[in-house]
Write a structure and sequence with these properties.
heterodimer, A: alpha+beta, 5 domains, 16% strand, B: alpha/beta, six-stranded mixed beta sheet, 10 helices
Chain lengths: 860, 249
């Protein structure tokens, strides 16, 4: 039977190639994502070791949560204390800051598109000068080789540097490699390094350091020194070895890699899922074509078992071959992804790709597993083929009755919906939620696909009606062929359905979020200007110096300025880190109306006041007047009083404190955002005066920002537009990624069309002999593809819209409040799938046109 | 051998020194070997011969489904060997009718749609009165809305003949039209074709290996090894059998 299966594959090279190709794509995605992220991990672990090298021990303030740059500083006095400990040879204070931009010779800030712009105190342990010398005096700085080379920075020249506090000119005195003497370990970040005291002043950290590196004197055991340091410094400080330091760095990096990996895997999963549909479909069709052949096997003595085993063997061969090719192409994909990352600003140091046994195992599981599972149903049906099939001309496999399909599919669909609903509302952790949502989506799609043949025929007929009356016999035949085998039409459309449904879902949710945001901005914004980073890369935008807000506030043209600061995990309540926003609560209402439902933001002591979004207040069960114990990253705990509960989270997030409270716990004082109100607007007499006030105030603000090319000012309209286009861009990126599943669906359509053309060879011969021209024949196949694709498109968009609306309703109100359906986008999706259908039909149509008429007529 | 009235008739189709050669050198096969044959208008001609004699090849080449290697094939005034693929297709659509052994009908179209298929492909309505007459002659007037799978084998073949007749082509080629049906059904189909010739003046050329089927024709042409070796006018099953026996010997 193995020989037979193999022979049958070799005989049908095309269908073998197409089926394999589909599996290859799925495997490729899986292998590509894992290989790339494994390589990233090993790159990052190398980088972490490079960062940690140069010191034996590191002393830091013990911090239980919060970001590295939110950590409290180690006072200078502690440095003296450390030096006094036995076995300590030298100390190397370390200082780092975010948002340190070098402005190049043309006045443009050097902005890495994704990675941060960092400032450091010069650390001889990890910074290796390649040209010039290390900065040793005020007014000097050094930068990394890649930033210098990439932007034409020259030693001896003076450049403006935008720091976290102020902008000042510095002379470039040296260029260094980071991590190793002979190669720069960079991930695209720009680095500016200063002499230690100068860095403290420029970064605004005069009273301390971020960490103190310790070099152990020769002859002392590192662990002994560590013990003595821990005893000396007490519980407030951590003393960690180089290895632990590297491991912690690596863990931070890996969190980013994990997110990246998850995103890639979601797309790999979609690809595999779509592929599974197509494989199943192909096997079913192939089985239909081979009924006579299998009947012959049965007639000459093959048992039903042997027949079904041969079907499964055939799929196993496809699976194995596809897995092997897929692994190879997956490695190529990883290289391509790496090149893309480099192109968009994340250069990775070259290193070998890591193909781990785990990745190979997963590839096999996906490649072989998907094909084998897809072949189970056809294999079971193959058993039912009787020997008579070999003789009877028109033996057809009994398809599952539509009634049973509707019942079975409906049940599966309902189960999927329940899982989806549970995933969205049960409030589980991220992983179980994703698993539930994934299972729910799979079940829902399988259910829809099972049921869809029931309406494939009427739908295809209805869609084809205008085609039939307007486009003559080719249109008529195209429509008939599309409606002819509803199961095939439905499952071909099913491959399109998945991609389109997901795109539709993303479109509806995205549009709703956008609409919500626009509504909020329209209703809530009272301020006239918004000052924020001009950065438009990936990740959270960088902050800017707080003193810019002070300078703007001092302008005569400006009535008031509100400063907004932000920290991920900047506050811990009940042991759980919360993202916080800090703003000037006394004037919050004048700048952004947060829709306060109870209490008053301006009430209470700024040093203990807390305002909560209604979702957070509800989940904690607190209201105005209640108190909460909150811990900050500097390990201090405060008792905060809830002064207000608000409904609109667009600007203030879920947790809002006053800037004064922020200042007492964070040494980072950069602003995420600031807003300003024009002075004297209310008393403006006419339009002209209004315009003059607007022009004057804007010019004044731009004057302040002149030395800070990384910061920009926007009026309400510009701000709204910028936010909108940012959201649109994000939605588009997601849709394009999902759109990759289109490629797979395209293959599915090519596959089914080729096979359905093949099935009709005789009929095509007949049509050609009674005078159908090649053009008419091709046109009828185009119409068939178009109708199937539009059917899939409409089905997908409908499902996507329903799911999108449901998701929007299920999402928290703080995130989305309005349901909006982007009809134009949805129409475009249907158009795209129609085009995809036509593209897929080209090859089968040309092949059908070239078919020899006599062979076709003689074909059985 | 000859019957004088037919000689006065014009020729619907003819082949002049038509050869069809497959392969070359040692493997060369002459399916048609410089054949000269003419089919007169308004007559029913049968082409007979043993398997591999080239009778189907002759029909395919005459009908523009296949091309000859050398020589000429002429339908009406048109030399098929000068036509492009597209013109050949249009010629088949407008001037030639076909009846095959089986699967003559498009399963998604009804009987009447199958009958008018060539006209629909041409984007024409056709001669409605004539089509009605043809449909009437099939005896299937009440079944025109049925799909092929709702008709018996004989009915399907009659629909196929009706399709061939509907466009009033210059010539109809039938390839073993009764090869797949029982003898009663065969008689029904052959009778219908005979009537089409006698009463409607249609020209029909039929390939068959069945002497009974061939006996419905006005003339039988015998082919052996790609050459016309004999012909017989006003045949009966018996005279055909006699000829075949002689040829086989």
């Amino acid at each position: 039977m193995f020989k037979l299966a193999l022979r049958s594959l070799i005989d049908k090279k095309l269908r073998f190639a197409l089926t394999t190709f589909v599996v290859v794509l799925g495997v490729m995605f899986v292998v590509g994502s894992f290989t790339l992220t494994d390589s990233l991990r090993s790159t990052f672990s190398g980088l972490a070791r490079d960062i940690a090298q140069g010191t034996d021990l590191t002393v830091r303030v013990d911090q239980s949560f919060g970001g590295d740059f939110d950590r409290a500083t180690v006072p200078e006095a502690v440095g003296e204390q450390v030096l006094g400990v036995e076995g300590v040879d030298r100390v190397q204070p370390e200082l780092g800051a975010l948002n340190v931009f070098i402005v190049d010779g043309e006045g443009n800030a050097i902005r890495p598109p994704g990675p941060p712009a960092l400032g450091f105190s010069f650390n001889p342990g990890t910074f290796f000068i390649t040209d010039g010398r290390q900065p040793a005096a005020p007014g000097e700085f050094a930068t990394d080789t890649s930033t210098a080379a990439g932007n034409g920075l020259r030693i001896g020249e003076t450049y403006e540097v935008n720091g976290p506090i102020t902008a000042e000119p510095f002379e470039l005195v040296g260029v260094f490699n980071f991590g190793a003497p002979d190669s720069h370990t960079g991930l695209g970040q720009t680095m500016a390094a200063f002499e230690l005291d100068e860095a403290q002043r420029f970064f605004g950290m005069e009273d301390g350091y971020q960490a103190i590196g310790v070099l152990v004197s020769p002859g002392s055991e590192v662990s002994d020194v560590q013990d003595r340091l821990e005893a000396e410094l007490g519980d407030d400080y951590r003393v960690i070895t180089q290895e632990v330091d590297a491991a912690e760095q690596e863990e931070d990096f890996n969190q980013v890699v994990d997110i990246f990996n998850t995103i890639l895997l979601v797309f790999a999963f979609i690809a595999v899922f779509v592929a599974a549909f197509i494989i199943n479909n192909t096997f079913q069709i192939i089985l239909g074509q081979r009924v006579r052949e299998i009947g012959l096997w049965r007639a000459i003595g093959a048992t039903p078992r042997q027949v079904s085993r041969s079907v499964i063997t055939e799929s196993a061969i496809v699976g194995v071959v596809a897995t092997i090719i897929g692994i190879g192409l997956g490695l190529v994909l990883a290289l391509v992804l790496r090149a893309i990352l480099e192109l968009i600003g994340f250069p990775l140091p070259p290193g070998p790709l890591t193909l781990q046994p785990r990745t190979v195992g997963l590839a096999l599981l996906v490649g072989l597993g998907v094909t084998m599972i897809s072949s189970i149903a056809p294999a079971l049906r193959a058993r039912k083929i009787s020997p008579v099939a070999a003789l009877a001309h028109d033996f057809r496999l009994d398809p599952t009755s539509l009634r049973r399909r509707v019942i079975a599919g409906g049940t599966v669909f309902a189960a999927g919906v329940v899982a989806l609903a549970a995933g969205m509302t049960a409030g589980l952790d991220t992983t179980p939620t994703f698993v539930l949502l994934g299972i729910g989506a799979v079940l829902a799609f399988v259910g829809i696909n099972t049921v869809s043949p029931a309406f494939a025929r009427p739908a295809a007929s209805a869609l084809g009606r205008p085609v039939k009356s307007l486009f003559g016999m080719p249109g008529r035949l195209g429509r008939d062929n599309a409606a002819r085998n509803p199961r095939r039409t439905a499952s071909t459309a099913g491959a399109l359905l998945i991609g389109l449904a997901l795109m539709g879902l993303a479109a509806v949710v995205g549009e709703s979020v956008k609409k919500t945001f626009v509504n909020i901005i329209e209703n809530a914004v009272e301020a006239d200007y918004f000052i924020r980073s001009a950065e438009t890369g990936f990740g959270p935008p960088p902050g800017f110096p707080a003193r810019l807000a002070d300078e703007i506030e001092a302008l005569d043209e400006i009535e008031s300025v509100m400063r907004v600061q932000f920290a991920f995990g900047g506050l811990s309540v009940n042991g759980e880190p919360r993202d916080i926003v800090a703003a000037d609560m006394a004037q919050a209402d004048d700048h952004f109306d947060g829709q306060v439902s109870s209490g008053d933001m301006a009430a209470g002591d700024p040093l203990t006041a807390l305002a909560l979004h209604s979702d957070s207040a509800a989940s904690l069960g607190v209201g105005v007047g209640d108190t909460l114990e909150a811990t900050f990253p500097d390990n201090q705990t405060e008792t905060l009083t809830v002064v207000a509960v608000y409904e609109d989270a667009a600007i203030y997030g879920n947790w809002l404190i006053d800037g004064a409270l922020w200042d007492s716990h964070f040494n980072r004082n950069d602003l995420a955002f600031a807003s300003a109100r024009i002075a004297g607007l209310a008393s403006a007499a006419d339009e002209a005066e209004l315009a003059a006030l607007q022009d004057g105030s804007r010019a004044a603000i731009e004057g302040v920002l002149d030395r800070y090319p990384t910061v920009k000012v926007e009026n309400q309209a510009e701000f709204r537009q910028a936010q909108e286009s940012q959201l649109t861009a994000l939605i588009r990126v997601i849709q394009v990624l999902i759109g990759l599943s289109f490629v797979i669906a395209l293959i599915g359509i090519i596959n089914t069309l080729s096979l359905s053309v093949f099935e009709r060879i005789h009929e095509i011969g007949l049509l050609r002999s009674v005078g159908m021209t090649r053009k008419q024949l091709r046109r009828s196949i185009y119409w068939e593809a178009l109708i199937v694709a539009v059917f899939g498109g409409l089905l997908g968009v409908t499902v996507g819209t329903v799911f999108g609306v449901a998701t929007t309703l299920a999402l928290p109100e703080s995130f989305v409040q309005t349901v909006a359906v982007p009809w134009l986008d949805l129409a475009v999706f249907v158009l795209i799938s129609a085009i995809a259908g036509l593209l897929a039909a080209i090859l089968p149509a040309i092949r059908a046109g070239r078919m020899n008429i006599l062979d076709a007529i003689a074909h059985e | 051998m000859t019957s004088s009235p037919t000689q006065a008739l014009a020729t619907a189709a003819r082949a002049v020194a038509a050869s069809k050669i497959y392969g070359s050198g040692d493997t060369e096969v002459r399916a048609l070997d410089a054949i000269d044959v003419a089919f007169e208008e308004g007559r029913f001609t049968a082409i007979m011969g043993p398997s591999g004699s080239g009778k189907s090849t002759l029909m395919h080449c005459m009908a523009g489904l296949d091309t000859v290697t050398s020589g000429q094939v002429i339908i009406g005034d048109t030399d098929l060997t000068t036509l492009s693929e597209k013109d050949l297709t249009l010629l088949r659509r407008d001037n030639v009718g076909f009846v095959f052994q089986a699967y003559n009908l498009v399963p998604t179209l009804t009987a009447i749609e199958n009958i008018t298929l060539p006209m629909d492909l041409a984007g024409e309505t056709g001669d409605t009165a004539w089509i009605d007459e043809v449909v009437g002659a099939t005896g299937l007037s009440d079944r025109t809305k049925h799909r092929p799978n709702e008709l018996s084998g004989g009915q399907q073949q009659r629909v196929a003949v009706a399709r061939a007749l509907a466009g009033r082509p210059q010539i109809i080629f039938a390839d073993e039209p009764t090869g797949n049906v029982d003898s009663n059904t065969a008689a029904e189909i052959l009778g219908f074709m005979r009537n089409a010739v006698t009463e409607m003046g249609q020209t029909i050329v039929m390939v068959t290996h069945d002497p009974v089927a061939a006996s419905y024709a006005d003339r039988v042409v015998f082919l052996v090894d790609g050459k016309i070796v004999d012909e017989l006018a006003d045949p009966t099953p018996q005279t055909i059998r006699d000829h075949m026996t002689r040829l086989g010997a």
